[in-house]
Amino acid sequence: MKLRPYQQEVARAVLDSVQQGKGLTFSVEIARQGGKNELSAHLEVLLLTLYMARGGSLIKCSPTFKPQTVISMARLRDRLADFGFGGIYHAEMGYIISLGSAKAVFLSAEESSSVVGHTADILLEIDESQDVNKEKYTKEFRPMGSSTNVTTVHYGTTWDETTLLEEVKQINLGQEKKDGVKRHFRYDWQEVGKYNPAYKSYVRSERERLGEDPPLFRTQYLLLPIMGGGGFLSRQQVMLLLGSHPRLREPGQGKVYVAGIDIAGEKEEGSAAATLSSRARQDSTVITVAEVIEREDKEPGLTIVEHYCWTGTPHSQLYGQMVDILNRWKCQRIVVDATGIGQPVAYFLKRALGSKVKPFVFTAKSKSELGFNLLAFVNGARIKLYAQDGSAEYKQLMFELEHARAQYRPNQTMNFYVDPSQGHDDFLMSMALAVEGARGFRPRRAVGK
Predict the structure, then answer these.
(1) pLDDT by residue (tens digit) across 90-149?
(2) Is 138 left (phi over 0), alpha (psi -120 to 50) or beta?
(3) How many structural domains comprise the chain?
(4) In the 8-state DSSP scheme, what is residue 95?
(5) Residue 215 falls within a domain, yes or no?
(6) Domain of 191?
(7) Do residues 328 and 305 make contact, with C-beta atoms less than 8 angstroms apart?
(8) Would you say the pTM of this structure is higher than 0.85?
């Protein structure tokens, strides 16, 4: 089987535990796109072949049925065909693949899934273990191999110290110190790159573009866990944001602009306005206007040139003002918060300004992606704030940048926010929406003869 040396090391350890009945539990961390899934599929083919006459079951669970479990089954079918079993294996019930008397059972680890009753006597695999609920695993999957002392393998990339994968990893490292038997296998991008030059070049370019600080790079390529929550931006990252260009009141000739609009919450509408500098102020509607800067690496940059803020003003009174501002700056893309009370505002702006308006609905997933994209711009020095001008808007944005917190979830998503006890995060969210407007954007320019 065509496996790289680090994959072979894992395969040999797992196979030895299975054949010798040792019943060991392994944890395997391989950098993103480093061949973790191929290793799993090759092991499944090998074990199904060895047990096709004797019979038995191996069970593999994934965090979701679609797409993860479905993809795992498709990969196993492809590998079986590669090794000449195309006309021999057969599928049953939509989640079982059999080779002779041996079978591979693919199950979902979603909390609502019903998996009780299955027994694993060849191998138990936990795919993307960092995303599997601990209680679900302990109560429903781990007992599947208890009567057979089955060998278990947890695959994944690290996230934070609270995940199932990290818990199994720490137990394994403790066991290794006691008996010297290797149970945890870790191969970061540099190890994978030793055997795949193209992969090494790609990750190097990602590191140069993003830096090593973004959570996704740290966890997916460096395999370094995030230690809980904490500040969203470090002092160094805030310093990277600081620019020297002046704040503008009017657009520059031939410049291209985008805008991000964070909409004040419904409860604040119509209330008496608080001062912008007050930390206990109300939620505000904020527009961030930024110039799109074309760069040699084809990834756009942003320079924030202006802010507009309204506190305590009903949305109905803002429509005309916002349209005038966005028209004056000739914004080519406008990303507006369309969550809840923001939906009618986004609808009005889209009717007035057309397809350049992009409504953005905040969900746990979309906000996480928004935060990671903002971090990528910051770490790549691709976004700059206008120079200190002593304004209340500048001070408020700096306050939010310095007080923003990050909460990292086991499912590899993140929430970023300013604690409500300290204030709001309107300027921060407006800036993040402006970044969303710039991502992948190619300015349309007039072409003359």
Answers:
(1) 999 999 999 999 999 999 999 889 998 899 999 999 999 999 999 999 999 999 999 999
(2) alpha
(3) 2
(4) T
(5) no
(6) 5-198
(7) no
(8) no
